[in-house]
Design goal:
The protein folds into three domains: 119 residues, Ribonuclease H-like superfamily/Ribonuclease H (Nucleotidyltransferase, domain 5); 205 residues, no CATH class; 172 residues, no CATH class. It has 13 helices and 24 strands. The strands form four sheets. Strands 6, 7, 8, 9, 10, 11, 12, 13 and 14 form a nine-stranded antiparallel sheet that branches. The longest helix has 21 residues. It is globular and about 80 Å long.
């Protein structure tokens, strides 16, 4: 993965100085809370170049985004934008990742097992995150009046009534950094009828977006800002949001009136390695303006062919003059791509076919309950000494409840099932996989370390409510969860097995929409005790 070409050029314009920066992340001690910090420090200037607190461990992508911020918009007011000569990290994986990313920026990446200054810094970080708005120009000044006029012209078209987020238009221009853009219209939504335009940098970026929506987004808690943000930041696109505002709330001169309502124009870009930024570089402002003009011309020429609600196969070549460079014009090809959505739908169906890999639909006894449980820390501490089969996994510290998917059946069946899991080398991971179709059915699967897939159960929107609640608990533990096998299906303990009735506990993780039977079998040590 690499930074966008426009971003690389922008960063290369920042002067490079002979300084060394230190970067990395740490878990911060908080009472009844888990907080992680990530930062880039400049020891020479004794300055914090960039910093971020979150509830999730920092990823290489997040530290890359912070590095870009440290270069362009340093947190310390006394610091000027600059590129370091060298950066030092204390994580080998991060070093290898950054080497490839910052190579075009002529920055050396070194590894040091211990960075005392970084340790000292995180010891003194306060627990309160800050969200400081940066005073940046959203657009180069010469583009502001041009955008106000052209965006209003686009917003007034009936294209918003005919196309939606699953009907993209393909724009191609050899002169652009990203020669192929896929335009996705975000239709008016919410009480304020906000809407907008997304321009995905290539077909792969668009496919990744749709797959997130189809496979992962339904299982993310809308109140879980951390996971929602991480999902958004995996996009690779430029965007224009049109947000309805009151005049007193307008904080820029980028706006237009539509049907008597005032709309603010919010440009920006998202990239997994750069994060989200609320502005365009000059070449991006030029490209997006030309794309908007091309969409307007395309729609005016072809809208009658969309009148019956059909999606015709069209391909137009348009000459679009540059708004600021009068001797320059662009040859832009605008096309409908009816096959791309069907291809993605086919891929989803192919995902279903994966489960002919084969999938074992009889691994779980017919007479069994699937229970979504939360185990208290003291219960989880007691279980390894109680169960006959135990697979040890990685569990985050300081949890209040450990989510365990519990299969309760008859005693003999429970012992056979737990032994079978142990023979398979334990559970590699659990996964939730949506099936295509209007029924919105999802499969809950277990992949064993012998690379066999077991169907645990299927759920429709009504029966899946308990599953969704359980997944929220799993998300809170960064995917950590367990699979337990218990008996006691009849009698007083039906659907409420005691700890002594649990035969096996297999600590594992939940990975959305993921099946990998190509990797070699990886049996894990299972602790076996005879009761």
């Amino acid at each position: 993965m690499s930074l966008p070409a426009a971003t690389i050029r922008r960063l290369l314009n920042v002067p490079q100085v002979s300084t060394v920066w230190l970067g990395g992340g740490r878990s911060l001690d908080r009472i009844n809370d888990t907080v992680f910090g990530a930062a880039w420090l400049d020891p020479q200037d004794q300055a914090i170049r960039s910093m971020e607190l979150s509830q999730l461990p920092p990823t290489p992508e997040q530290l890359t985004r912070l590095l870009v911020q440290a270069i362009e918009h340093p947190r310390h007011l006394a610091c000027e934008p600059c590129r370091p000569h060298t950066i030092i990290v204390d994580d080998r994986e991060l070093q290898f990742f950054l080497r490839g990313v910052v190579a075009p920026l002529d920055i050396q990446v070194e590894y040091q097992a211990q960075i005392p200054l970084l340790d000292e810094f995180f010891e003194f970080i306060t627990a309160k995150a800050t969200d400081e708005a940066e005073d940046v120009e959203l657009l180069p000044r010469e583009y502001i009046p041009l955008y106000k006029q052209k965006v209003k012209e686009l917003a007034q078209l009936d294209i918003w009534q005919c196309l939606d987020s699953v009907i993209p238009l393909k724009l191609h221009c050899e002169a652009w950094d990203s020669p192929t853009l896929f335009a996705v219209l975000v239709n008016p939504q919410g009480t304020n009828h906000d809407f907008g335009l997304m321009l995905y940098r290539g077909e792969e970026a668009l496919r990744n977006f749709w797959q997130q929506i189809d496979q992962e987004y339904p299982y993310i808690d809308e109140d879980d800002d951390e996971h929602l943000e991480e999902t958004v930041l995996r996009n690779n696109c430029l965007f224009l949001n049109f947000t309805q505002v009151n005049a007193e709330d307008l904080d820029s001169d980028l706006f237009f009136f539509l049907n008597g309502k005032l709309y603010a124009i919010d440009p920006g870009a998202i990239h997994p390695l750069e994060g989200m930024r609320p502005f365009y570089a000059p070449e991006e402002a030029e490209m997006v303006y030309v794309a908007i003009e091309a969409l307007i011309k395309f729609w005016k020429k072809t809208k009658k062919q969309f009148a019956k609600g059909e999606y015709p196969e069209l391909n137009l070549r348009l000459k679009i003059p540059s708004p600021c460079h009068f001797a320059l014009s662009y040859q832009v090809q605008v096309a409908t791509v009816p096959q791309i959505r069907s291809t993605i739908d086919d891929n989803t169906e192919e995902s279903d076919l994966k489960f002919r890999i084969p999938i074992d639909t009889e691994a779980i006894p017919e007479e069994a309950y699937l229970l979504f449980k939360l185990f208290a820390p003291e219960e989880l501490q007691e279980l390894p000494a109680v169960v006959s089969y135990y697979q040890r996994g990685e569990i985050p510290e300081g949890f209040q409840g450990y989510p365990v998917l519990t299969i309760q059946t008859k005693k003999t069946a429970a012992e056979v099932l737990a032994a079978k899991i142990a023979e398979e080398g334990g559970i590699h991971h659990l996964t939730v996989f949506p099936l295509s179709g209007a029924e919105q059915v999802v499969m809950l699967l277990a992949q064993t370390n012998a690379n066999h897939l077991w169907l645990l159960d299927t759920f429709d929107p009504e029966s899946g409510l308990l599953l969704l609640d359980w997944i929220k608990e799993v998300n809170a533990l960064e995917g950590a969860c367990g699979l337990a096998v218990a008996y006691g299906i009849t009698g007083k303990t039906r659907m409420q097995p005691t700890l002594k009735q649990i035969v096996g506990l297999f600590e594992t993780s939940l990975i959305f929409s993921f099946v990998d039977t190509q990797r070699p079998p990886t049996p894990q040590p299972i602790e076996i005790a005879k009761r």
